């Protein structure tokens, strides 16, 4: 088994809510990322994927469970101990405007993670220029401020900042969601190219299924804090097993005519404060039976994929 | 004989004032929408699609003004209508819903009240009757337990529910035209599917014309009867939907459709459009798309293409449209109204 | 590059142009500049020594030698006003420097760290804000005796909480911006995050607040001197001169009037500058 560069073991995250109740944003999620792999995480609002991203980046502590970076258990490490390790996991966030300090020059923004490594000034400068070239920005971009760039270019800067320090893993949290279609395509291509060239491991979080399919090798689907299906990209998209995954794929409007249109999934995503008992999806599920209301389905391995359903298929 | 259009926009131009100068934002925009028709307006940010909607509603704000052309609602030009008359039209004859229902709803009033308010103001209904009608509208919009939900405040409802309330408010007076500006962009995919289905039904139930503005080609494919493609403040293509998907008449349309990553299959390399859309205030010479166009030829750099009508209801602003379509032009549209649905 | 690109130098010249177009800012900064120049060059500008008494010429009317007349002890009013500028601006400057550094730092720490640091600092803010400044000055004067130091200490104590509150709310807003998260992910230590990421983005509102605040500080200093708690004789201060002048208001009004006018105009100047800065530095130019 190839060594995993990142592993989550039964991670759970609760938020205290009014009336002594707890909001369980992430429920018993286990995930393993191998070297050179890209995992896509999809889900709608309230599914917990953003919280999961923050837990992976150690911006938020998990309530229980373990987090391993390159095999090392970092769950209990203090922020001070984390700092020297942080270079190995970097991130690109959703909003290209607020993710770059408007008062800093681009070169300084990209160099900042490098500066924590105590490298010589010339090494840092060289790295910055290399990374700018890698993401397709002109060499003189370093001297300017973020507001001089368009949304797509800013996102390239954010990617450059993540890559400059040569991390092992990069987490993309809705990194293309704020971009226009044509720009999104450019950035997705860039991500795929960088992945191939540098053999990095990526976690790509998005609600855009097409984007996830384009960059991911394996895909995990989340609903109300839980992982409901995890499989290789082709298997998941072409032959989804979990009813939620099937509904999700059916609901995506494709730019193609003559799509068969099954009835849309009824109801709304329940509040995370009031999760339905046993299988969280059963109130909306077209296949729900009594068992689904009473017995919590476990994540089972079915033919090389993981499904959390009593009646998959 | 085709029914007369609910909305006919001809050669519309809009400019915004920043500092001391006027910057053109829209030019030569022409289209029509027939009753019960859904016209999809698709474009990226900066294309001018939202400005078009605002111009039709005459909500351009103090900095914006219509610089030319006409906007005819049920045959009457509203470009020069005094504000008082426009107020009577808004909400009654033409209604609009936006992307963010949270900011369109007053957080301090119950949703039932806000729907009833429109009914009382516009249709002069009494309080009890307005409330009853509001509940009916909510039920028609697919809101469960509408009697109880009517007393909820906006923050108690989910995004999808709020958007249904917005639609209920918009449809309260049975408008002739509904303008929806990115109505489902902020919603989850599964909720989006519900809302879109509901909107599609509106035109059958009420006979309303719908102007659906979106950047999402998938939504267009699902909903629109005809499509208008906008780029840098101009209309570049207009066509019935099946025809457009089968054979686009403008390179931008073709590239736009190809650039969308689809969940149906994995593509080795996603075709992307290099460069960035120019701001309409400072367009390149000749065709606005030529710097990014893989099909650009010499004439594209020097002469701006006119919007031309072709057979089969196709309209395109491209020097090479004949090649792309395999059709001949019928007449030039420079300043005349655009044809409506195909005969 | 796209049409969206423009040089960073064009950014600051855009600020400059906005400045030139703003009437408040121009008038305000002209007045302030004048006051500062007078304060700096006061020994050279004053025609007479500020403490040169001449009882034979007490309450003298304005003439060639004494342009604004003389006061109770025959001292030249004009010279005393000029030196008074130095006093007022020095005190105001010191107070601004102290309150800005202490207030911004404490507010930023409270906002960014939250928890107990936030609670302690904000409760101190509440406690201090409960006292009117005069009370503070009196207490401190009783402890260390009246004088310039007393005024600076008292006013600093009174003004830092307001700055701290502003700083804290700015930090709270900025904290959720993802460039802060990105800095944490990059492994940047907390102190550097505050210094490099938070503070520069707080500059504008704090600058505006400071310029308007200076006007009030000068006013407060004048009040304290007026009450006899501040700058002591023979060093002139505008507030003290107003107090003196009031005793002879009906017979020799020149002292009171001229001191009040100078004080008023200077405060107006700072206020105008603050208003102008607020207009200029607001989102329009910030490119957000």
Shape of chain A: globular
Q: What is the average of the pLDDT values of chain A?
A: 90
Average pLDDT for all residues of chain C: 83
Radius of gyration computed on alpha carbons of chain C: 23 Å
Name the helix and strand elements of chain C from N-terminus to C-terminus, one letter apiece.
Answer: HHHHHHHHHHHHH
Strand content of chain A: 15-25%
Order of helices and strands of chain A: EEEHEEHEHHHEHEHEEHHHEE
* Number of E-type strands of chain A: 12
- For the record, the count of structural domains of chain C works out to 1
How many E-type strands of chain C? 0
Q: Outline the low-pLDDT stretches of chain C.
A: 1-9, 284-288
The secondary structure category of chain A is alpha/beta
Helix amount of chain C: over 70%
Task: Describe the main β-sheet of chain C briefly.
Answer: none
What's the CATH superfamily of chain C, by name?
A: MetI-like
Structure description:
Chain A is an alpha/beta fold and 313 residues long. Chain A contains ten helices and twelve strands. Chain A has helices spanning 49-56, 79-82, 106-115, 121-134, 151-164, 181-198, 209-215, 233-238, 243-251, 290-294; strands at 4-16, 22-34, 38-42, 64-69, 72-73, 89-92, 169-173, 201-206, 218-223, 226-232, 300-302, 305-307. In chain A, the strands form two sheets. In chain A, strands 6-7-8-3-9-10-12-11 form an eight-stranded mixed β-sheet, with helices on both faces. A four-stranded antiparallel β-sheet of chain A has the order 2-1-4-5, covered by helices on one side. The longest helix of chain A is centred in the middle third of the chain and has 18 residues, at 181-198. Chain B has a nine-stranded mixed β-sheet with strand order 6-7-8-3-9-10-12-11-13, sandwiched between helices. Chain B has a four-stranded antiparallel β-sheet with strand order 2-1-4-5, with helices on one face. Chain C is mainly alpha-helical. Chain C has a single domain, classed as MetI-like (MetI-like fold), CATH 1.10.3720.10. Classes of the chains: A alpha/beta (313), B alpha/beta (343), C mainly alpha (288). At the A-B interface, helix 6, helix 7, helix 8 and helix 9 of A face helix 7, helix 8, helix 9, helix 10 and helix 11 of B.
């Amino acid at each position: 088994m190839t060594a995993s560069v990142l592993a989550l073991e039964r991670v759970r995250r609760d938020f205290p809510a009014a009336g002594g109740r707890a909001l369980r944003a992430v429920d018993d999620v286990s995930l393993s990322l191998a070297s050179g792999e890209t995992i896509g995480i999809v889900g709608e609002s309230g599914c917990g994927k953003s919280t999961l991203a923050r837990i992976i980046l150690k911006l938020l502590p998990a309530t229980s469970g373990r987090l391993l970076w390159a095999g090392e258990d970092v769950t209990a490490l203090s922020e001070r101990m984390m700092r020297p390790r942080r270079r190995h996991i970097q991130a690109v966030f959703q909003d290209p405007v607020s993710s770059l300090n408007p008062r800093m020059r681009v070169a300084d923004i990209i160099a900042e993670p490098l500066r924590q490594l105590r490298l010589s000034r010339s090494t840092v400068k060289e790295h910055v220029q290399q990374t700018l070239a890698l993401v397709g920005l002109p060499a003189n971009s370093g001297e300017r401020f973020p507001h001089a760039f368009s949304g797509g270019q800013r996102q390239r800067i954010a990617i450059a900042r993540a890559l400059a320090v040569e991390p092992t893993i990069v987490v993309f949290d809705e990194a293309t969601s704020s971009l226009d279609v044509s720009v999104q395509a450019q950035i997705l291509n860039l991500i795929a190219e960088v992945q191939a060239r540098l053999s990095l491991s990526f976690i790509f979080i998005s609600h855009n299924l097409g984007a996830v399919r384009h960059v991911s090798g394996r895909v995990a689907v989340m609903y109300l804090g839980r992982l409901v299906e995890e499989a290789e990209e082709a298997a998941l998209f072409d032959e989804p097993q979990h009813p939620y995954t099937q509904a999700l794929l059916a609901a995506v409007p494709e730019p193609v005519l003559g799509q068969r249109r099954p009835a849309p999934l009824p109801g709304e995503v329940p509040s995370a404060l009031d999760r339905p008992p046993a299988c969280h999806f059963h109130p909306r599920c077209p296949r729900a039976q009594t068992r689904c209301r009473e017995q919590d389905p476990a994540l089972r391995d079915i033919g090389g994929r993981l499904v959390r359903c009593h009646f998959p298929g | 004989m085709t029914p007369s259009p609910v909305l006919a926009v001809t050669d519309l131009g809009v400019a915004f004032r920043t500092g001391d100068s006027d910057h053109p934002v829209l030019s030569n925009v022409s289209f029509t929408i027939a009753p019960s028709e859904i016209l999809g307006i698709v474009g990226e940010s900066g294309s001018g699609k939202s400005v078009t909607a605002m111009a039709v509603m005459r909500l351009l704000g103090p900095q914006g003004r219509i610089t030319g052309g006409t906007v005819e609602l049920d045959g009457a030009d509203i470009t020069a209508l005094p504000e008082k008359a426009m107020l009577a039209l808004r909400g009654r004859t033409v209604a609009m819903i936006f992307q963010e229902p949270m900011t369109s709803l007053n957080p301090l009033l119950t949703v039932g009240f806000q729907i009833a308010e429109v009914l009382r103001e516009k249709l002069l209904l009494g309080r009890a009757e307005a409330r009853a009608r509001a509940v009916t509208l909510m039920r028609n919009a697919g809101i469960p337990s509408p009697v109880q939900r009517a007393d909820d405040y906006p923050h108690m409802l989910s995004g999808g529910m709020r958007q249904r309330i917005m639609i209920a408010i918009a449809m309260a007076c049975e408008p002739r035209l509904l303008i929806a500006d990115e109505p489902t962009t902020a919603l989850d995919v599964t909720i989006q599917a519900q809302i879109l289905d509901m909107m599609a039904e509106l035109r059958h139930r009420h006979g309303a014309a719908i102007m659906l503005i979106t950047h999402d080609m998938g939504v267009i494919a699902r909903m629109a009867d005809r499509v208008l493609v906008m780029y840098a403040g101009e209309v570049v293509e207009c066509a019935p939907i099946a025809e457009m998907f089968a054979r686009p008449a403008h390179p931008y349309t073709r590239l736009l459709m190809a650039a969308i990553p689809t969940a149906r299959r994995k593509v080795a390399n996603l075709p992307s459009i290099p460069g960035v859309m120019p701001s309409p205030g400072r367009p390149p010479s000749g065709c606005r798309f030529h710097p990014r166009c893989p099909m650009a030829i010499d004439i594209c750099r020097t002469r701006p293409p006119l919007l031309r009508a072709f057979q089969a209801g196709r309209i395109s602003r491209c020097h090479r449209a004949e090649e792309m379509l395999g059709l001949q032009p019928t007449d030039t549209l420079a300043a005349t109204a655009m044809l409506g649905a195909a005969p | 590059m796209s049409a969206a690109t423009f040089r960073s130098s064009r950014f600051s010249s855009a600020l400059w142009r906005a400045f030139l177009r703003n009437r408040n800012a121009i008038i305000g900064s002209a007045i302030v500049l004048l006051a500062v120049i007078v304060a700096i060059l006061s020994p050279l500008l004053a025609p007479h020594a500020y403490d040169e008494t001449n009882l034979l010429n007490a309450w003298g009317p304005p003439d060639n030698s004494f342009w604004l007349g003389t006061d109770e002890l025959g001292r030249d009013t004009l010279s005393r006003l000029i030196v008074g500028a130095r006093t007022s601006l020095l005190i105001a400057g010191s107070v601004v420097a102290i309150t800005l550094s202490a207030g911004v730092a404490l507010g930023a720490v409270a906002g960014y760290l939250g928890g107990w640091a936030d609670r302690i600092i904000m409760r101190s803010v509440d406690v201090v804000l409960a006292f009117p400044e005069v009370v503070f000055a009196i207490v401190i004067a009783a402890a260390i005796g009246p004088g310039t130091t007393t005024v600076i200490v008292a006013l600093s104590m009174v003004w830092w909480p307001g700055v701290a509150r502003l700083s804290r709310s700015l930090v709270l807003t900025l904290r959720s911006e993802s460039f802060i998260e990105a800095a944490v992910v990059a492994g940047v230590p907390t102190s550097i995050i505050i210094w490099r990421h938070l503070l520069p983005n707080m500059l504008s509102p704090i600058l505006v607040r400071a310029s308007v605040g200076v006007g009030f500080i000068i006013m407060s200093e004048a009040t304290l001197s007026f009450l006899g708690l501040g700058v002591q004789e023979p060093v002139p201060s505008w507030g003290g001169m107003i107090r003196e002048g009031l005793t002879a208001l009906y017979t020799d009004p020149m002292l009171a009037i001229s001191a009040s006018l100078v004080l008023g105009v200077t405060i107006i100047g700072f206020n105008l500058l603050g208003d102008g800065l607020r207009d200029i530095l607001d989102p329009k130019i910030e490119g957000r």
